[in-house]
Design goal:
430 residues; alpha+beta; Peroxisomal Thiolase, Chain A, domain 1; 10-stranded mixed beta sheet; two-stranded antiparallel sheet; 12 helices; 16 strands; 31% helix
Length: 430
């Protein structure tokens, strides 16, 4: 039986450099950075070695969605997911109808709400709720100070559940959690649900909001983050010789995947087609990539094989590109191993150089970027690539935006625990 084709019809970006498809894209083209000094309420940042990050400033849920009485209990990651989902649905020309008798909630203008799913990637639960609840429990009055809404919103699954509740989505709903590959794994899983399952559409991608003291301090303890506090705009420098760690970001990247015939029938906008993916594990170390890169190579090869694409047909790669010494060297090695001499002809540009690392949301934001690169034929730069590293000697597009026809592209994600996920996108052809 012929497999169903899966296309991308809606994009919802919530990032430190822009909220919405167009602001996000403009910032990428301009080489704009979202990195600055981090501020935590009631917390002294001076005790941290790293004091910079890519925060979304002045964010308010109700700038994008009407008030709902439960909103004050919804965590920041869930709020990002809600806004990203709304933007993706509107971009896909799905009509949002007010739900009768329920303030602030919607039904989608779709014949069967059980054929729409929401599968989202999240690296960690709504951390500010965890920290606030812990503080109330131990310091400010004990169990009676805990809200009954704390536990449901601490569950990682709440990020997807808040989306389905708000938009009346009744199909497959769950969260994928695989560290920094979470969103890409969610997208790959959603692809399978449409190809093999009952869903006609799936909201997918990821959301994360880990710029809070506990995860921030944890990454500092791992010595994984940049300490370039005096030059935050220069701190995230993927593949550069003087890179010294990643910069934490926050946000959401939500896309609407849709079965092709369903999209054509309703006249949906089609950005690109998702044609394959690869997933592997390093089986090496909880916090370091395998320097041999054999598992990442296999994930790339799996994606190419699933999509029926030869290595020399790849026109662009959106890399994981974290700005850590180990990741960037290992990723470059994997690309050179799979593509051989052709690797030097492939433009590779790192979105994280501008957005910082959105953790579980990174693959979603980067899928949006890759999709728009195919649609618009322009590749964004890798900013802060100033000093070539002999180990990282490919074409990282440091000079600025580059016009190029892109018909097939890879988006690479990797995460702590050695998880790898590679997505393969192609220009849509009817």
């Amino acid at each position: 039986m012929q497999k169903k084709r899966v296309v991308i019809t809606g994009l919802g970006a919530v990032t430190p450099i822009g909220i919405g498809k167009e602001p996000y894209w403009r910032a990428l083209m301009e080489g704009k950075t979202g990195v600055g000094r981090v501020e935590f309420p009631n917390f002294d940042m001076e005790q941290f070695r790293t004091r910079i990050g890519a925060q979304i400033k002045d964010f308010s849920l109700h700038d994008y969605l009407p008030f709902h009485k439960g909103d004050r209990h919804v965590g920041r990651a869930s709020q990002f997911a809600l806004v990203g989902a709304k933007l993706a649905l509107e971009d896909a020309e799905i009509q949002l109808l007010p739900r009768e008798g329920v303030e602030g909630r919607y039904e989608l203008n779709h014949s069967d709400s059980f054929k729409i799913g929401a599968i989202l990637g999240v690296a960690a639960e709504n951390m500010e709720i965890v920290e606030g609840s812990y503080d109330n429990l131990l310091k400010h009055g004990g169990p009676r100070r805990l809200t009954p809404f704390a536990l449901p919103n601490v569950y990682t699954s709440s990020v997807a559940s808040n989306v389905t509740e708000r938009f009346g989505i009744r199909g497959t709903t769950y969260v994928v959690s695989s560290a920094c590959a979470s969103a890409s794994h969610a997208i790959a899983t959603s692809y399978d649900r449409i190809q093999d399952g009952p869903e006609e559409m799936v909201l997918t991608g990821g959301a994360d909001a880990c710029i809070t003291p506990l995860p921030f301090g944890g990454f500092i303890a791992l010595r994984a983050m940049s300490t370039r506090n005096d030059e935050p705009q220069k701190a995230c420098r993927p593949f550069d010789l003087h890179r010294d760690g990643f910069v934490m970001g926050e946000g959401a990247g939500i896309i609407l995947l849709e079965e092709l015939n369903h999209a054509l029938k309703r006249g949906a906008p089609i950005y690109a087609e998702l044609i394959g993916y690869g997933m592997t594990s390093d089986a090496f170390h909880i916090a370091e990539p395998d320097p041999s890169a054999i598992s990442l190579c296999r994930a790339i090869e799996q994606a190419l094989a699933k999509g029926g694409i030869a290595p020399e047909e790849i026109d662009y790669i959106n890399p994981h590109g974290t700005s850590t010494k180990l990741n960037d060297a290992t990723e470059t090695k994997a690309i050179k191993t799979v593509f051989g001499d052709y690797a030097y002809q492939i433009p590779i540009s790192a979105t994280k150089s501008m957005t910082g690392h959105l953790l579980g949301a990174a693959g979603g934001a980067e899928a949006i970027c890759t999709t728009l690169t195919i649609k618009r034929g322009v590749i964004h730069p890798t900013i802060n690539y100033e000093f070539p590293d002999p180990e990282c000697d490919l074409d990282y597009v440091p000079e600025g935006p580059r016009e190029k026809e892109v018909r097939t592209a890879l988006s690479i994600s990797a995460g702590f625990g050695g998880v790898n996920c590679v997505l393969l996108f192609k220009a849509f052809e009817s």
